[in-house]
Please model this.
Amino acid sequence: MKNLSIYIEKNGVEIPVGTISGADTASSCFRYDKEYIKHGNPISVHLPLKEDEFSPENTSCFFEGLLPEGFSRKSVAAWMHVDENDYLTILSGLGKECLGAIRIEKSEDQTIVTPSYEKLNLEEVKKLAAEGATKSTELLVKSHLSLTGASGKVGLYFYNGEWYQPIGTAPSTHIVKQSHVRLRHIVENEQLALRTAAKMGIPTIRSFVVNAGEFEDSDILLASERYDRDLMHSKRMLNGLACPLRLHQEDFAQALGIRSSEKYEQKGGRYLSRIFQLVRAVSADPIHDQLQLLDILIFDKLIGNTDNHIKNLSLLYNADLSSVRLAPAYDLVSTLVYKESTADMSIAIDGELRWDRIDKDTFIRAHEEMGLSKRIVTSEYERLEKVFTNALQEAAMELKDEGFLNSEEIAKKILAIGRKL
Model:
């Protein structure tokens, strides 16, 4: 019998939300506690407040969406000696610190792990880069941290130039990703894309590259500040360090009730209209957030990011869960500089997935699908296209001056790809 207790942090205070119960993973259902329904807020757009239990399908769409994917999930399952398809058992092991403000634990588990931060030296941080997903898995399980995505990543606490590993329910401040084994210079690629987007006026996560050696792929990590953590309004200290508040978030797949395995649009998926309808329905500032969403999609086209799936777009809740906004852009990378990558985008524009068949006119034809005027779509595309090259080159030069010499070559490849159209 599966029995998991679900908690959420609200204004820095953790409160019980409900339970997941069932004979096995395939039959387990989530149900809100009656007391939570009286005064709480939905934990997902797709899980509105109600007394009845949610179906196993709706339950898994949200909660399985909290777990890592691909090789990282296989590694975690192997480490825990469980079936990788048993998402609830994996979540019970990793769910003490999820993305957003959710915490999950076995209902019968009375084990108390004192939250704390353990300092990491530079050599331990370097192992994250050198050992990739294997080391990330070890730290994920040790710190009970669930991070979505297919690449090896780990949540760490960063303060005053020092790194710490969160233990138990201690929140992290940064998500740290290692270089990809097959895709060279992927860390510099992502930092270049993020910095370029920021220069173009697109809200992005704050990030920096950690060099733990000689600037080689095995020496560098991408450290991204968590937008779902708030240090400014910290209410307690752990080991002399300010403990950040958790802010709730959910990605678009969770909010739309779409499985993680379906995050890449297939023909007829209508993801474009669905994501804009979602933003219009829930955002506290729908006009601004629709423009931000449009800008992200245009930027994905300009930079050649075909991995722009719906789990790379998220909603961010405020501290008391009463208001929702579009989260800043993250996981931006030029995938087309790699021969291994697909030329198919992850979200169709006017029914078109092929990157080389999408241009300004494609976006304009999709204006009704997005619920925006032709004038707005045209203006945004032309504005971003005009500043793209300069922003990319400026970002590349900055990274080069910081010691990341491959950034200039990556920028040249990105521009060369665009000129082939």
User: Anything to note?
Assistant: The radius of gyration is 21 Å. The mean pLDDT is 89. The first helix runs from residue 34 to 39.
